[in-house]
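Re: that chain you flagged

S.,

Sorry for the slow reply, it's been a week of failed gels. I finally had a moment to sit down with the sequence you sent. For the record, here it is as I used it:
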Amino acid sequence: MLKKGLVALFVAWFFYSWFVADTCSFDQEYAHSKVVKYLTGKSLPIEHLKFDSEYSGECKFAYMYEGAGEKIHFVIIDDFVHGVKLNMWDFNKQGD
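Prediction finished late last night. Pasting the structure tokens below so you have them in one place:
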């Protein structure tokens, strides 16, 4: 019985590490659309939005918004537990 449990645990770990952990539930286009939706909701023009390759990486995309009196850094991540999450740092409210 213990042997079957260990085999099942190994199979579950193998499946997770090869098929789930290395995949993202979104792409850059979706990340961009989440930031644009936020900016549109705040009536901010989107032409000041730039992709930030320095802080982008595996399953995360970053953008910097500088214009219209605003400076906001956005990072969209894929959190396995909570799903796609939009994080931001508003320099006007939170400082440098």
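What I noticed first: The longest strand covers residues 70-79.

Talk soon,
D.
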